[in-house]
Amino acid sequence: MKLPAGAPAEIKRMWVAPRARRLGLARRFLTELEARAAGHGYDTLRLDTNKTLDAAISLYHSFGFREVPAFNDEPYAHHWFEKRITPAPPTGPVPPTGPVPPSRQ
Fold this sequence. Notes:
Blueprint: E1 9-10, H1 25-39, E2 44-49, H2 54-62, E3 66-68, E4 79-84
């Protein structure tokens, strides 16, 4: 996965070996990649695929991706997809809420 600054996260070269297909691995991969992109603060996830990969195209549609205009010049891509995701909230200590104690003013 590419995580460029100032641009959407992009999944590159996701592939499942024929013997491992129909086990839900691609869905698990997509779920994990989406979580990782969100964990890095991204709100958009993109990918592209070839027109001969019907199962992949169906998977991306069923996973909530929508087709968008080409966003790269990948020579073997015929379909470009994008999905809006929710960035994960920042981790770390939660700042206190409420009035500031007099000792900190």
